[in-house]
């Protein structure tokens, strides 16, 4: 599962909060989507579902949960 990096999300929340506290209207702020994602693979769940995860995908994962 690819997820946005939590640190980037909190940083962006801080930027938006700062702009609002300085007087910006929330509706005037641009919509920003995460561009950095982490790939997490839960091997226990994959096995329970009968899925085989290719070694190339495991090699590119940021985190593999056993």
What does this structure look like?
With 66 residues, this protein is of the alpha+beta class. It contains three helices and three strands, in the order E-H-E-H-H-E. The chain has a three-stranded mixed beta sheet. The protein is rod-shaped, with a radius of gyration of 18 Å.
Described by strand count, sense and barrel closure, the largest sheet is:
3 strands, mixed
Strand content: 15-25%
Strand numbers in spatial order across the main sheet: 1-2-3
The rounded Rg comes to: 18 Å
Descriptors for this entry?
66 residues; alpha+beta; 3 helices; 3 strands; rod-shaped
How is this structure best summarized?
This protein has 66 residues and is α+β, with helices and mostly antiparallel strands. Helix content is 42%, strand content 18%.
Topology:
Layout lengths: L1 E3 L1 H16 L15 E6 H6 L6 H6 L2 E3 L1
Parallel strand pairs: 2-3
Antiparallel strand pairs: 1-2
């Amino acid at each position: 599962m690819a997820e946005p990096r939590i640190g980037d999300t909190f940083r962006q929340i801080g930027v938006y909060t700062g702009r609002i506290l300085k007087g910006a209207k929330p509706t005037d702020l641009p919509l920003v989507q995460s561009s950095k994602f982490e790939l997490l693979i839960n091997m226990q769940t994959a096995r329970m579902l009968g899925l085989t995860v290719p070694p190339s995908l495991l090699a590119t994962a940021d985190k593999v949960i056993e």
